[in-house]
Design brief:
The protein has about 170 residues and is α+β, with helices and mostly antiparallel strands. Helix content is about 35%, strand content about 15%.
Length: about 170
């Protein structure tokens, strides 16, 4: 039996795609435990799969050439950023920018704003677009410096109206 997945852990699917665990949820109707996890490639989609299916062994009759024992296997050793980048390039995959992950993990808009501020010299068009998607805002095309300032202004506005009171 495989270990129970925990938030933040990274797993490799037997088809060689990387995912990160968001949480374990419980189906409100059946009580079945579901693993909520996010792809670490392409559109970074979020998926839910029953825990029993997430931790099951690979069907060797259906997939005889697969070397992994389980459908998802935890990545136990962290690769250095360069090695991870080379590994994903070799497979034709993109890896999530660490600053993008810091932005996603920030719990408040104020914390997100601080992440953005720290990126003044490293911001890219791709990151501006990714942050805009995460925030569900539109940053019009134009000069990178202007788009970056617009993004910061959006986050500053969100931070100004962020509240901790119960609704």
């Amino acid at each position: 039996m495989q270990e129970r997945p925990r938030s933040g852990e990274r797993y490799r699917h037997f088809k060689n795609k990387l995912y990160q665990i968001i949480t374990i949820a419980k189906d409100s109707e059946t009580g079945e435990e579901l693993v909520i996890y996010q792809a670490l490639y392409e559109n970074f989609e979020v998926y839910a799969r029953p825990l029993s299916l997430f931790t099951e062994e690979v069907d060797k009759e259906k997939y005889p050439d697969v070397s992994q024992q389980y459908r998802f296997e935890r990545i136990r050793e962290e690769l250095h950023e360069e090695e991870a980048s080379e590994e994903t390039k070799d497979r034709g995959e993109e890896q999530a920018d660490p600053m993008l992950l810091r932005f996603i993990d920030a719990e408040t808009y104020e914390a997100k704003y601080k992440v953005l501020q720290s990126m003044e010299n490293t911001i890219t068009e791709r990151l501006v677009n990714d942050f805009a998607v995460i925030l569900d805002v539109v940053i019009p095309e134009g000069k990178l410096s202007e788009r970056y300032e617009q993004l910061k202004q959006c986050v500053a506005t969100m931070a100004r109206y962020e509240t901790t009171r119960l609704r």
